[in-house]
Amino acid sequence: LITFTLLVSSECVDDFCLKLVTLQLLLQNRQLTAEGDLWKCDDSLVAPLPIKSFNSSSEYGRGYAAAFAKLNRIQGAGGWSPLDTNRYQWLQVDLGSRKQVVSIATQGRYRSSDWTSQYQLLYSDAANNWRPYLKDGNIWTFKGNNNSEDVVREELQHAIVARYIRFIPLHWSQKGRIGVRLELYGCSYWADVISFDGHSIISYRFRSKKMKTVKDVISLKFKTTARDGVLLYGEGQQGDYILLQLQRATMELSINLGSSQYNLIKGHTSVTSGSLLDDGHWHSVAIERYRRNINFTLDHQTQQFRTNGEFEHLDLDYEVN
After folding, report:
1. CB 311 within 8 Å of CB 241
2. Looking at residues 115-122, what average pLDDT do you find?
3. Which residues on adjacent β-strands are paired with residue 188?
């Protein structure tokens, strides 16, 4: 997963930069719309999910599977119960995409002596690197149920923004075993940060088929836990291209302003910067080009270099991704 926000210098005057400015403004407007609707953020997120959205550490039997853990449902055995009753059990819900979760409601297993009296929540965007829900800086333990039918709802001090939620039982019924039915309340999450899962891109088509620039200013911020991924790419039919990517958690900028006929003079130029950029923290990148002179800045560390070859314009066709 690579997430980045595009920002553009106010000195940026060429067509390439204007395209990035347009993208940033569109994302900002999207965020404002979402913020205006936050007061409506109370949808049932679990109820509409299909069976495949549920997973668990184990199940007591076929009728006790994770998919039966929806609030107020009586199908199957009336809720989820794991095979073993200990603190190593978990129930996982895949919300399908990143959601903003503002509260959770729980019940015990229908007409049984099985319920969960205390639990914790973990969350993740990729079903790994799980983070515990914190309150006042501490891992928070939620109060659950003391019978099988009453609904106990807990409002979150701050919203969880994630795709995956894990329910971790800590204490349970002394009369029975771990059991739960639950619902998560919230809404879709919109932000001025674009998230990618490795199978999607955003493309911007040029108004004309070709774009020829002598000056470019590109600035972006990103965070990721992936070691490899493309952040920006554009190419032209004449062989020009610009590529910004992560290779083994190191940033690599490749650019070609053109090579001479028969490749007697090659224009490909590549530089690398940084390491361990898959740490999940925000990093900033800036590329400033004027003709063949480039300033390449990563986290305030700048490299200055000149591109190979003898050409000074970047010729791109159709779009940048």
Report:
1. no
2. 98
3. 99
Query: Which domains, ranges and CATH numbers included, belong to the chain?
Result: 43-188 (2.60.120.260), 203-315 (2.60.120.200)
SS3 content of the chain, % helix, strand, coil (to 5): 10, 50, 40
Q: How far apart are CA 213 and CA 23, in angstroms?
A: 19
Distance separating alpha carbons of residues 58 and 92, to the nearest angstrom? 11
Which pLDDT score is estimated for 29? 37
- Closest to 163 (Cα-Cα) out of 226, 98, 217: 98
> Measuring CA to CA, how many Å separate 111 from each of 177, 182, 300?
13, 15, 61
| Residue recorded with tokens 């701050």 | 158
pLDDT score recorded for residue 190? 75
Sorting pLDDT into bands at 50, 70 and 90, what band is 203?
Answer: confident
Query: What is the Cα Rg of the chain in Å?
Result: 26
Most confidently modeled range among 56-70, 184-198, 279-293: 56-70
Tell the burial category of 40 from Cβ atoms under 10 Å away from its Cβ (0-12, 13-18, 19+).
exposed
- Which amino acid is residue 132, in one-letter code? P
HSE at residue 128, side-chain half, CA atoms within 13 A, is: 5
Tell me how far apart the alpha carbons of residues 89 and 67 are, in angstroms, rounded to a whole number: 15
Provide the token pair at 312. 């000074």
d(CA 99, CA 91): 18
Question: What per-residue confidence (pLDDT) applies to 89?
Answer: 98
Determine the Cα–Cα distance for residues 259 and 310; give it in Å rounded to an integer.
8
Name the maximum alpha-carbon separation found in the chain.
83
Q: What is the pTM of this model?
A: 0.56
Using pLDDT thresholds of 50, 70 and 90, give the confidence band for residue 318.
Answer: confident
Cβ atoms of residues 116 and 108 within 8 Å: yes
Q: Answer with the residue of higher pLDDT: 104 or 9.
A: 104
